[in-house]
Design a protein that fits this description.
By secondary structure, the chain is α/β, with parallel strands linked by helices. Helix content is about 45%, strand content about 10%. It contains 29 helices and 18 strands. It has a 6-stranded parallel sheet with strand order 3-2-6-7-1-8. Helix 2 packs across helix 3, helix 5 crosses helix 10 and helix 6 crosses helix 7. Keywords: ATP-binding, Helicase, Hydrolase, Isomerase, Nucleotide-binding.
């Protein structure tokens, strides 16, 4: 690995505060830039291509480029249009430009810039006002499907809408959709001919009602500029210099609009990284970035490889991951060079099963919190949203606040709520001997998992996952998680029925229901793009999940590798990578770690049977790669009443079977609940972060008299004894708690 440049040579200068004075002159704008960033700032003429790796300060480089040009009198602010892909990114760019004294520059998304031009030129080009934008295109797609006599559930509707959006950004008309989808290797949620008919019907409905959608904004802007040379000339007279951020995510339609804005000029600066192309399913393609030098032979090409975000250890792993990549994007990969001091080695952890992986991750997060890392600076990243439930529960049990990004909480997802209602109805029907509403059937003479499968099959669950990705797959994953939960529950309680499972679901949902708080981020890898944390845990890294099972072509596999690369490069200092050998405790341990880790994790061989991974960060330090101890099977926990082996997490916490006689002191339990509510309000946290319901039940049953007795209860531990032990023991002794909020608010 290339040695890191001493960080004191080019210190990373944070963005100035909102009220800071702008730089005194153009030369001051260049202060604090490293040599490559300065080269970007000074490259103000002709086509410029900036290949910027993760964490290399690309936004800093391009905003300083614009600001330097404006402050030096080379660029007029109103003549510059900077475009990116999200309103958040555009807003950040505008803020930085204002801070640098270049506030008149337009920084917008492609859609925002196109809509602004349409609104201005529509009366002259077409007459009247721009048609109204459709607020919810899904409703129109549903109506078009109904006219075609095609029934779509909510998730299929979302996926079909996604196919229509993909068709429009790739400039595919309805009749060409089946061929275009097959050529692109897409896996449509329904028959391609059906989608083509719905697409055509959707376009007809829009015309009849005089409305347009988001993609039409780009299409109409392209149409106006193509058909009206006078308008195109006026736009080109206004905007003479263009900057495009995240250029690897440009769609063919966006590239067409950019070409029309440019005309025959070449005052264009693009910034991107082909190794971060992870949205090809939406029509994004890195081809425009990779072909830039071919289309602009005289282009200035600048590479930003100094990584200011991550430690040398994290960067070494990221570089190693891409070193195994194949394909066109891999040929243009950037080898990053960390500018940060050395940090801890990435930790690879193998667990016996998924619950153990979630518990182990929560335990390591707890250790980081205790060492001073803020919860908001920690993230758990997974491949699909259905993986979140285990981590929600594990963090809740560990008293760690969390927030979900890009997805609802598991028990708040529409399909999970609907499944809960169906299971409740089936349980009631079993009890009274009637047919449940909604067409769901669950024979009460079958075993519990069979009953659950029968109910959920009416809402999309199948023994095998559906082909492709998208909402249908996400829905299936959520329902499959419920089926697995039923299987685990039935193993722990062979005599349990549907009513018992519904009660368990209610308790789980109640334990996790809480307002969003400042906490550990749970997010999918796609939702994590553009973000960063001090500590990142990449979980579930097994074959079939990373890469995902429906990634079959070489191109799809390589995009999965890039997705993992994006996850790795989100970490500043701490990085954990983990996988489980089995799904559930005691299950068959046939899983294998992701192929992408071959040659990187300790003891593994490189692809092609090469030598095992070399330990050490590769930056001059001979530190062995830290490896979490392999977790074997956990010692059996037995019911303290009947002696049966326990497997359910809730029963393990109580140390007894759910249906075994309870020694619960109900009055104590109610006092504990009231005390917990008061403490949670004082701390500004959800109640489960103090103690979960199951832990309170265990305390009320055990009635501990000493701190060691309290600490032995699952879900308590030394940290919570220190924070809450005096109060809890006082309550157990029938006394009033006497904590001092001023001195005991820290956890």
């Amino acid at each position: 690995m290339t040695a890191a440049t001493p960080p004191t040579l080019f210190p990373r200068v944070s963005a100035p505060s909102e009220y800071a004075e702008p730089p005194r002159d153009a030369d001051a704008v260049l202060e604090g830039l490293d040599p490559e960033q300065r080269e970007v700032a000074l490259a103000l003429h002709g086509p410029v291509c900036v290949l910027a790796g993760a964490g290399t300060g690309k936004t800093r480089a391009i905003t300083h480029r614009i600001a330097y040009g404006v402050r030096a009198g080379i660029l007029q602010p109103a003549s510059v249009l900077a475009v990116t892909f999200t309103n958040r990114a555009a807003g950040e760019m505008r803020g930085r430009l204002r801070q640098l004294g270049a506030g008149g520059v337009q920084a917008r998304t492609f859609h925002s810039a196109a809509l602004r031009q349409l609104q201005y030129f529509w009366p002259r080009a077409i007459g009247g006002e721009v048609p109204r934008l459709v607020e919810r295109k899904v409703q129109l797609v549903a109506e078009a499907a109904a006219r075609c006599r095609v029934r779509l559930d909510r998730n299929e509707l979302r996926d079909v809408t996604g196919e229509i959006e993909w068709s429009k950004v790739t400039q595919t008309v309805p009749e060409e959709y089946p061929v275009a989808a097959a050529r692109a290797g897409r896996q449509p949620p329904r028959d391609a001919a059906e989608i083509a008919r719905i697409y055509a019907g959707y376009e007809e409905l829009k015309r009849d009602r005089g409305v347009i959608d988001f993609e039409d904004v780009l299409l109409l802007a392209v149409g106006v500029l193509q058909d009206r040379a006078d308008i195109a000339d006026q736009v080109r007279a206004q905007y003479q210099h263009f900057v495009v951020d995240e250029y690897q995510d440009v769609s063919p339609l966006q590239q067409r609009l950019l070409d029309l804005w440019l005309g025959d000029r070449d005052s264009l600066c693009v910034v991107g990284d082909a190794s971060q192309t992870i949205y090809s399913f939406t029509g994004a393609t890195p081809d425009h970035l990779l072909d830039f030098r071919a289309r602009h032979p005289g282009a200035t090409v600048i590479r930003l490889i100094r990584d200011y975000r991550s430690t040398p250890q994290v960067v070494h792993l990221a570089n190693g991951l891409l070193a195994q990549a194949r394909g066109r994007a891999a040929e243009h990969r950037l080898e990053l060079v960390s500018q940060r001091p050395a940090g801890p080695e990435p930790v690879y952890a193998e667990y016996a099963d998924e619950p153990a992986e979630a518990e182990g991750t929560a335990r390591r997060i707890r250790e980081l919190l205790d060492s001073g890392v803020r919860a908001a600076e920690i993230a758990v990243l997974y491949r699909v949203n259905a993986q979140s439930e285990l981590y929600e529960q594990a963090l809740a049990d560990a008293g760690v606040p969390y927030q979900l990004r890009g997805a609802e909480r598991f028990f708040e997802r529409p399909e999970v709520r609907e499944a809960g209602l169906l299971l409740r109805g089936a349980a009631l029907a079993n009890r009274v001997g009637t047919q449940p509403a909604g067409g769901a059937t669950a024979a009460d003479d079958g075993d519990l998992p069979s009953q659950v499968r029968a109910v959920l099959s009416s809402r999309g669950w199948t023994p095998e996952p559906p082909a492709g990705s998208g909402a249908v797959r996400d829905r299936w994953e959520s329902l499959a998680a419920l089926v697995r939960l039923a299987e685990d529950f039935a193993r722990a309680r062979p005599d349990a029925g549907l009513a018992d499972l519904v009660a368990e679901l209610d308790e789980r949902a109640a334990a996790q229901h809480a307002p969003t708080v400042e906490g550990v981020t749970l997010a999918s890898l796609h939702a994590a793009k553009g973000l960063e944390w001090d500590a990142v845990f990449l979980v579930g890294l097994t074959e079939g999940m990373m890469p995902i099972t429906y990634a079959r072509t070489d191109e799809q596999i390589e995009e999965e590798r890039r997705l993992l690369y994006v996850g790795v490069t989100r970490a500043r200092r701490h990085l954990g990578l983990s996988w489980a050998l089995a799904r559930s405790p005691g299950g068959r341990t046939g899983r294998r770690p992701s192929r992408f880790l071959n040659g990187l994790r300790p003891g593994s061989s490189a692809p092609g049977g090469g030598r095992p991974a070399v330990t050490g960060a590769g930056h001059g330090a001979g530190v062995e790669r830290g490896t979490a101890p392999r977790r074997g099977r956990r010692a059996p926990v037995r019911c303290r009443v009947c002696g049966r082996t326990l497997t359910d997490a809730g029963e393990i916490k109580l140390m007894r079977c759910e249906d075994c006689p309870s020694e619960l002191d109900e009055a104590l339990y109610e006092r504990l609940r009231e005390w917990r509510a008061d403490r949670a309000r004082e701390l500004g946290q959800p109640a489960y972060c103090v103690f979960t319901d199951k832990t309170l039940l265990a305390i009320a049953e055990a009635v501990p008299g000493t701190e060691p007795e309290l600490a032995r209860i699952s879900g308590v531990g030394r940290r919570k004894v220190a924070a809450y032990g005096a109060d809890v023991l006082a309550l157990c002794a029938g006394e009033e708690p006497g904590h001092d909020p001023e001195n005991s608010s820290r956890k």
